[in-house]
Amino acid sequence: MKDFIEYIETSCADLKDNHLAYLYKKKILDEMTDRANEITHAGLKDEKVLADLMADEYPDLKGNFLKFQKEQRKKKLANLLKIVLPVGGLIFLILMFITYFEVSKATRAWDKTWLIIVGGIFSLIIFYFSFAIHKLCHMRRIWHPIARVLIAGCVMLFTVFMFLFWLMMIPRLTFWPIIPGGIILMLVCDLIFAYVTKQKFRTVSCFVYMPVISTMLFIILAAYNIVSWRAGWPIIFLGLVADLIYILLIALSNAKYFMYKQEVEE
Amino acid sequence: MERRLNAELWDKMHYLFRDFNDRMVHVELNYDFIPDIEALKTVIICAFEKAPVLHSKFVDTKISTHWKVMPYDIDDVFSVSYPDNVEEAVEEFLTQYIAPDADIQMKIALFIKDGKSTLCMVENHMCMDGGDLKYFIQSFCENYSKYVTDGISPINFRTGSRSYDDVYSGFSKTEAGAAQRLFKNINAKDNHKFPLTPDNIRDKSFIARRKFDESTFAKLKARGKELGATINELLLASYFYSVYELAGFPASDKVMISNAIDLRRHMDSVEDKGFTNHTSWMQCAIPERGRDIFETIKYVVRSSNKFKKDKFMGLYGLPLLNFGYNILPHAASEEIIKIGYSNPLMAMSNIGLLNGQHFALAGKEPTDAFMSGAVKYKPFVLLTATTYKNVICLSMCVRGNEEDKKIVNDFFDLMEKNINTIIG
């Protein structure tokens, strides 16, 4: 243990002597002691070898301090969020109800102000989902599909709110195409997530989504009479054309590998 | 806190081979002195700490697999005994089986008699192949020597990635891209079997060996130069010829023997890599037996030259295996891979030259050194070749009975006869 303290003090000599540095040194010492106990339990008797082995396992103490600092900041933030999220949510709900009653009383538009409650609750759910998605993204890949489902959930909540808002506020305009619009947004968001986080089978997702997106696009355009229901259906095939172009692009980028000719020494 | 290690592609592949062999790799080093036992223990612990896979258990949850690092006691890993019959004790030690879910994956024993010692190691092939085991022993011996003579702590063991895709590290970007798209399954099935008896519950693992003296090695080397063949090709040719004779295959039959190849040839350096497997098969096929052994040699050379010209030798099918293991839960992946994979019925692994200086403990080289591959389950066989101090040692590890032992020895007699024909 004396050897470890000596090693830690020498390695961290340049660090400012503050509480964080103390916490770091203590953490390293505890880890080293635990590992040393494990190894001693395995049967190692030579203390010099043990000290060298430990030093080899913890080669860059000074460099790792920066990582530790970041971790500590994250930990603090996480602890803060544990309090802020439920309390903040509660305060938000109270404020939302107060706003709802005040606005309703002032405007006498009780038939429309309920949107404040729906919007508020949806925003709160989307806010919590965002935290969950962020956390899931930093977990093992096996959890990522749940993040994708939550993203889809967020988009659909947003779409439903927009649908209700449109329905209540601008009733003369055709409002139902917001739903196919939401589906497009949901698929696009999922694709962005899949490509940014390099999910398996993202190409397959892309192939499947393209025709769905083009179909939804056709429905929206036809609903607003931009194209006619009878003549506009070829838009659906745009998705398949996009798929084809995508396949060609993949084939082109892979061609150099498949066409690779070995230079063989005879 | 639980320490976990990734189960790499080759770990999973060797786990899948549980139906074909016991996955144990064997080492025997004979010294004419007794090494420092406490120092050996220290070196073993350091080696285990630097390569934690050696004290890990393989966890198969059916969905996925990983290694779980386990606590261990040096006495469970290393044993020292003073048997009356060293040969028997060594055979018993070497033919033991370490289960993948055991807490340790390598066992070491020191047998002492009359001032001489035999250091034996048995290791799970899932952790590392013969190539890396050779390197491991070399590091082990170097660390021991420096520790005993200079007091330097024995911590100089390689650590790093165990991933299969390190094999592409020596290629340019385009070459690596091309190699990573070799999805072709090159497994070719051949039904010609080594003529062992049917399976029996009384079968026991045994290691049969045959040595060829220094003069045979020198003559083989010279003859190889004349015939334009390597020693490996000459041994492979006599393997083919002997098995035709032993099993009575019609001379016109096409027969295939798989040859283990070290994929490290494709890598720039292994210095920053961990101990792992990088071995694949090259299928050497001859169209017929040939009128004599020399014609067989021509066929073997022709077949192996085809592979030598291939820059991506041994890399075919790796992306397919990786894809197979990645798309489905582990249990399902295994079933699918089993459909496409056919384990070679007859195979050969030339571990190559064992350098005495590399295996020297405190400057004293072993008087004899031996390494061999896993004990194969019938009808599969693997002929292992090692060369130490210009003595070639052929070995075959089989789970069988006395009759199988006799068959393997008859095979070695035929090998001897055919090698003698080659060297004239």
Describe the structure.
Chain A is an all-alpha fold and 266 residues long. Chain A has nine helices and no strands. Chain A has helices at 2-11, 19-42, 47-57, 61-107, 110-137, 144-169, 178-196, 202-223, 235-258. Chain A is flat, with a radius of gyration of 29 Å. In chain B, strands 8, 9, 10, 11, 13, 14 and 15 form a seven-stranded mixed beta sheet that branches. The termini of chain B are far apart. The mean pLDDT of chain B is 94. In chain B, helix 2 crosses helix 5 and helix 10 (318-327) runs antiparallel to helix 11 (330-340). Chain B is α/β, with parallel strands linked by helices. The A-B interface holds A 38-39, 41-46, 48-49, 52-53, 56-57, 142, 200, 254, 256-258, 260, 262-266 and B 38, 41-42, 45-46, 48-49, 64, 71-75, 147, 151, 153-155, 174-175, 177-178, 180-181, 309-312, 326-327.
Question: Summarize this, please?
Answer:
Chain A has 266 residues and is mostly helical.
Mean pLDDT of chain B: 94
- Listing every helix as H and every strand as E from the N terminus to the C terminus, the arrangement of chain A reads HHHHHHHHH
List low-pLDDT spans of chain A: none
The biggest chain-chain interface is: A-B, 26 and 30 residues
State the separation between the terminal residues of chain A, measured CA to CA. 63 Å
- Please, what is the average pLDDT of chain A? 90
Assembly type of the chains comes to: heterodimer
Q: Indicate the radius of gyration of chain A in whole angstroms.
A: 29 Å
Strand content of chain A: under 5%
Distinct helical segment count of chain B: 12
